[in-house]
Amino acid sequence: MVIAIGLVILVVFLFLCSGRATLIPAVAVPMSLIGSFAAMYLCGFSLNNLSLMALTIAIGFAVDDTIVMIENILRHVEEDIKPINAALLGVREVGFTVLLMSASLVAMFIPLMLMEGLVGRLFREFSITLSVSIGLSLIISLTLRPMMCAYLLC
């Protein structure tokens, strides 16, 4: 899990070419995963191969939300808009898109949550873990990431 996060952060750094911009997903991605671990604990889920696979997939979804948000805010900062105004404008422009992406991903996992039997129990744990992580990533991408962009992209 740590290796996956490290590789993703390295790719983000190579893509953005900015240490400050890379710090944003480096903080936000682990926060959504820690929240997912808390939800797994509260639901009584175990840490097995399917839940680890769900958390690994969630890293990709969390970074996807982050890149969409950071790229839009960086575009406004490069147009000489103050970072705080660029963050507010960026959230206003792509916030609904990020919301719809996350909602469609969670909707995709609803049939897995409703499966019955032994396979259903396994996939229920997988889908709930992944859906919680996507939901937390959404909340973080609409609150924490723009705030961090406003203060770190100076």
Structural description of this entry:
With 154 residues, the chain is an all-alpha fold. Helices cover 88% and strands 0% of the residues. It has 6 helices and no strands. It has helices at 2-16, 19-43, 49-78, 83-113, 117-142, 144-152. Helix 1 (2-16) runs antiparallel to helix 2, helix 3 (49-78) runs antiparallel to helix 4 (83-113) and helix 4 (83-113) packs antiparallel against helix 6. It starts with a helix and ends with a helix.
CATH topology category name = Multidrug efflux transporter AcrB transmembrane fold
Q: For the CA atoms, what is the radius of gyration?
A: 16 Å
Low-confidence stretches: none
Shape annotation = elongated
The domain count comes to 1
Q: Roughly how much helix do the residues carry, as a percent range?
A: over 70%
CATH architecture title: Up-down Bundle
CATH homologous superfamily classification: Multidrug efflux transporter AcrB transmembrane domain
Profile the largest sheet: none
Mean pLDDT: 89
Distance between the termini: 31 Å
Tell me the fraction of residues in β-strands, as a range. under 5%
The secondary-structure element order is HHHHHH
Strand runs, count: 0
Task: Offer a quick outline of the entry.
The protein is about 90% helix and about 0% strand. It has helices at about 1-15, 20-45, 50-80, 85-115, 115-140, 145-150.
